[in-house]
Amino acid sequence: xxxxxxxxxxxxxxxxxxxxxxxxxxxxxxxxxxxxxxxxxxxxxxxxxxxxxxxxxxxxxxxxxxxxxxxxxxxxxxxxxxxxxxxxxxxxxxxxxxxxxxxxxxxxxxxxxxxxxxxxxxxxxxxxxxxxxxxxxxxxxxxxxxxxxxxxxxxxxxxxxxxxxxxxxxxxxxxxxxxxxxxxxxxxxxxxxxxxxxxxxxxxxxxxxxxxxxxxxxxxxxxxxxxxxxxxxxxxxxxxxxxxxxxxxxxxxxxxxxxxxxxxxxxxxxxxxxxxxxxxxxxxxxxxxxxxxxxxxxxxxxx
Length: 303
Known about the structure:
The protein is of the alpha/beta class. It has twelve helices and eight strands. The chain has a five-stranded mixed sheet, with helices on both faces. Strands 1-8-2 form a three-stranded antiparallel sheet, sandwiched between helices.
């Protein structure tokens, strides 16, 4: 269940309607689809947005939609009996994640660099792509040494026992906005009111989720999943705790990108000075108003 779906269900999107066109487990693929016009909006890790813009894609980040906090984070897990205890133990080991060049690989690199590994040593660690739903099983079958798990997949794996955390992105960086929805410059120019309605509606949904009890957010999410009738099991939603968005109303700021710009430069993916944070995003379509915005009623009616 996504924030736009929640916003629509709460009536925050007005006459704007969402059209589901499919699923992806890759943020870079998702925003590529938006950049090429296959979809009107896409979402990904901010580092992936930077790479897309650096490659010449005419897109703008318009709102943060996921982040990291004490309840919403990605953990790097090993088996309980694993000899891996620190960064240097990862040399030659496979670390499974949903996609390369994005959030999970960036945090892995930061962990290794802070652990004192040289660039040559970092290159000996093996980031490996696996679908998130298969990652826990691959770890338990010892096909990989480290599994990156987040959200309900993390909590279900922990509940089953037999694994322990090595580190998490919250351990490394604390709370932060991690990913944004993007739209093309063309779409924003041609559809300013639709864009504003969508972005502001998502902002209101973020704040509704903060001001509403966890039980009520979960119950509403379960209703949404059941009504969309895609033959899904809503049971996993019981593990939801937070969307992790750090900023009020999901508003975007320079610091949401600068860390990843520096990482991409050090990684050799972009050149120093090639991209500036202020060129990557716009809050012009977010009518929520940041910290001074009015409170959002938790009893909003459905559309």
